[in-house]
Write a structure and sequence with these properties.
The protein is an all-beta fold. 0% of the residues lie in helices and 46% in strands. A hairpin with a 4-residue loop joins strand 2 and strand 3. Bound molecules: FE2/S2 (inorganic) cluster (FES).
Length: 105
Protein backbone atom coordinates (compact mmCIF):
# COMPACT_ATOMS: atom_id res chain seq x y z
CA UNK A 1 0.00 0.00 0.00
CA UNK A 2 1.31 3.40 -0.93
CA UNK A 3 -0.05 6.66 0.42
CA UNK A 4 0.26 9.36 -2.21
CA UNK A 5 0.12 13.09 -1.51
CA UNK A 6 -2.10 14.83 -4.03
CA UNK A 7 -3.53 18.35 -3.97
CA UNK A 8 -4.81 20.68 -1.25
CA UNK A 9 -8.31 19.91 -0.11
CA UNK A 10 -9.17 23.59 -0.61
CA UNK A 11 -8.38 23.20 -4.32
CA UNK A 12 -11.58 21.20 -4.87
CA UNK A 13 -14.81 23.08 -4.26
CA UNK A 14 -17.84 21.22 -2.99
CA UNK A 15 -19.49 19.08 -5.69
CA UNK A 16 -16.54 19.38 -7.99
CA UNK A 17 -13.57 17.30 -9.01
CA UNK A 18 -9.93 17.30 -10.00
CA UNK A 19 -7.64 14.99 -11.91
CA UNK A 20 -4.47 13.71 -10.26
CA UNK A 21 -1.89 11.70 -12.19
CA UNK A 22 0.76 9.42 -10.78
CA UNK A 23 3.41 7.75 -12.93
CA UNK A 24 1.06 4.86 -13.59
CA UNK A 25 -2.48 5.95 -12.82
CA UNK A 26 -5.02 8.68 -13.35
CA UNK A 27 -7.16 9.29 -10.30
CA UNK A 28 -10.29 11.43 -10.12
CA UNK A 29 -10.70 13.28 -6.81
CA UNK A 30 -14.07 14.57 -5.66
CA UNK A 31 -15.45 16.75 -2.91
CA UNK A 32 -18.93 15.66 -1.91
CA UNK A 33 -20.38 17.55 1.04
CA UNK A 34 -16.91 18.16 2.46
CA UNK A 35 -15.85 14.52 2.16
CA UNK A 36 -13.16 13.57 -0.32
CA UNK A 37 -13.33 10.55 -2.60
CA UNK A 38 -10.89 9.05 -5.07
CA UNK A 39 -11.79 6.74 -7.93
CA UNK A 40 -10.23 5.67 -11.22
CA UNK A 41 -10.51 8.53 -13.67
CA UNK A 42 -11.27 6.28 -16.65
CA UNK A 43 -14.92 5.34 -17.08
CA UNK A 44 -15.53 1.58 -17.04
CA UNK A 45 -17.68 1.86 -20.18
CA UNK A 46 -15.37 3.56 -22.69
CA UNK A 47 -12.68 6.21 -22.95
CA UNK A 48 -13.90 9.13 -20.87
CA UNK A 49 -12.48 11.06 -17.95
CA UNK A 50 -14.77 10.92 -14.94
CA UNK A 51 -13.06 13.95 -13.39
CA UNK A 52 -14.73 15.94 -16.17
CA UNK A 53 -18.19 14.74 -15.19
CA UNK A 54 -20.89 16.52 -13.25
CA UNK A 55 -20.99 15.80 -9.50
CA UNK A 56 -24.22 15.59 -7.48
CA UNK A 57 -25.60 13.44 -4.64
CA UNK A 58 -22.13 11.91 -4.16
CA UNK A 59 -22.26 10.55 -7.69
CA UNK A 60 -20.47 11.53 -10.86
CA UNK A 61 -22.08 11.47 -14.27
CA UNK A 62 -19.78 10.34 -17.06
CA UNK A 63 -19.40 13.22 -19.55
CA UNK A 64 -19.56 10.91 -22.58
CA UNK A 65 -22.68 8.73 -22.25
CA UNK A 66 -24.08 9.77 -18.89
CA UNK A 67 -23.58 6.67 -16.73
CA UNK A 68 -23.53 7.55 -13.05
CA UNK A 69 -21.01 6.19 -10.54
CA UNK A 70 -21.35 6.18 -6.76
CA UNK A 71 -18.30 8.03 -5.42
CA UNK A 72 -18.29 6.03 -2.19
CA UNK A 73 -18.39 2.55 -3.72
CA UNK A 74 -17.37 3.06 -7.35
CA UNK A 75 -20.52 1.20 -8.37
CA UNK A 76 -22.02 1.97 -11.78
CA UNK A 77 -25.55 2.91 -10.76
CA UNK A 78 -26.96 3.71 -14.21
CA UNK A 79 -26.43 2.40 -17.72
CA UNK A 80 -24.65 2.24 -20.07
CA UNK A 81 -21.82 1.42 -17.66
CA UNK A 82 -22.22 -1.90 -15.86
CA UNK A 83 -18.81 -2.35 -14.24
CA UNK A 84 -17.62 -0.57 -11.12
CA UNK A 85 -14.54 1.61 -11.05
CA UNK A 86 -11.88 1.22 -8.36
CA UNK A 87 -12.11 3.39 -5.27
CA UNK A 88 -9.25 4.48 -3.04
CA UNK A 89 -9.17 5.54 0.58
CA UNK A 90 -8.49 9.20 1.20
CA UNK A 91 -7.19 11.03 4.21
CA UNK A 92 -6.52 14.72 4.87
CA UNK A 93 -3.11 15.43 6.39
CA UNK A 94 -1.98 19.02 6.91
CA UNK A 95 -4.56 20.22 4.39
CA UNK A 96 -3.55 17.84 1.61
CA UNK A 97 -5.54 14.92 0.25
CA UNK A 98 -3.64 11.65 0.51
CA UNK A 99 -4.79 8.67 -1.50
CA UNK A 100 -4.02 5.08 -0.57
CA UNK A 101 -3.18 3.45 -3.87
CA UNK A 102 -3.74 -0.23 -4.34
CA UNK A 103 -6.55 -0.57 -1.81
CA UNK A 104 -10.25 -0.42 -2.29
CA UNK A 105 -11.85 2.21 -0.09
S1 LIG B 1 -17.76 6.32 -21.54
FE1 LIG B 1 -18.69 6.63 -19.61
S2 LIG B 1 -20.72 6.01 -19.94
FE2 LIG B 1 -19.77 5.64 -21.83
Amino acid sequence: MEKVKTIKSTDIAENSSALFETNTQQIALFNCEGQFYAIDDMCSHAEASLSEGEVYDCKVECPLHGAEFDLKTGEAVTLPATKSVNTYKTEIIDGYIYVEMGTDA
